[in-house]
Amino acid sequence: MVTQSSPSPSLSCIETVPHRSSHVSPFEASSSYHNHGDPSESKPLQDVHISERLMEDFAELARENTEKDLETCGALGAFLCQALNEEEVFAIQNEHALYPVGWIHTHPSQGCFMSSVDLHTHYSYQAMVPEAFAIVVAPTDSSRRHGIFRLTDPGGMDILRGCEETGFHPHKEPEDGTPLYENCSNVYKNSNLRFEIFDLR
Ligand SMILES: [Zn+2]
Ligand SMILES: [Zn+2]
Questions:
Q1: Domains of the chain from N-terminus onward
Q2: How far is the CA of 36 from the centre of ligand 1 (A)?
Q3: Residue 13: CB atoms within 10 Å
Q4: What's the CA-to-centroid distance between 55 and ligand 1, angstroms?
Q5: DSSP per-residue codes, 133-159
Q6: Residues with CB under 5 A from ligand 1 (ion)
Q7: Distance, CA 129 to ligand 1 centroid (Å)?
Q8: Rounded distance from Cα 95 to ligand 2 centre (Å)
Q9: Do 18 and 78 form a contact (C-beta atoms < 8 A)?
Q10: Ligand 1: centre distance to CA 122 (Å)
């Protein structure tokens, strides 16, 4: 049932978000969220824009591994969009000073879902950045070739925070009746983004 893990090629993707979309950085949103600790004071999630080509290009790069039933994994980085001009954006790109916004991996022969191991991996991203998302690319799932997921908060986050098991294991459902994870509603596919993949294989 478990696919082998890959001789892990590591990929990273750069995306710029249109300037109009945020005036408050997710870091600020995130720290104030954690500092206050009161959900009623939490700010809504920032919108995140990803390139329309991201899943397709990644699936193409992973194809050889996928055919061998090996998973391929990559980290996703994004630019915050404050009022940066082109030169500033360029300088930041040069330094690869990217904001960790999530990760992407393939399920070569399994369906499009988050395994328990995926949930634990994702927990560390989302604990750091509330907007973090996980993309699962499942080329052989005829019903759904990719999904963009996050843990429910507080439901899924609380369960994962309290779970010390490793490997593949079942999780109980959150007590508030929510599922452990959900489809992201704050991630938008955008055909107009600058987008780069660094293939570190
Ligand atoms: Zn997985
Ligand atoms: Zn667990």
A1: 15-199 (3.40.140.10)
A2: 33
A3: 24
A4: 15
A5: EEEEE-TT-SS-SEEEEEE-TTHHHHH
A6: 115, 118
A7: 20
A8: 36
A9: no
A10: 10
pLDDT, tens digit, for every residue of 10-53? 444 444 444 444 333 343 333 334 444 454 456 788 888 899 89
- Distance, CA of 100 to CA of 121 (rounded, Å): 14
14 closest CA partner among 80, 66, 73, 60:
80
Residue with tokens 């696919």: 3
Q: What is the pLDDT of residue 166?
A: 94
Q: How far is the CA of 198 from the centre of ligand 2 (A)?
A: 31
pLDDT for residue 145? 94
Tell me the torsion sign for CA atoms 80, 181, 189, 22: negative
CA of 76 from ligand 2 middle (Å) equals 23
* Token reading at 67: 């055919």
* For residue 5, pLDDT beyond 80: no
What is the CA(54)–ligand 2 centre distance, in A? 29
Among residues 93, 66, 68, 61, the alpha carbon closest in space to that of 79 is found at 93
Round to the nearest angstrom and report the end-to-end CA distance of the chain. 26
Please list the residues that pair with 197 across neighbouring strands: 13
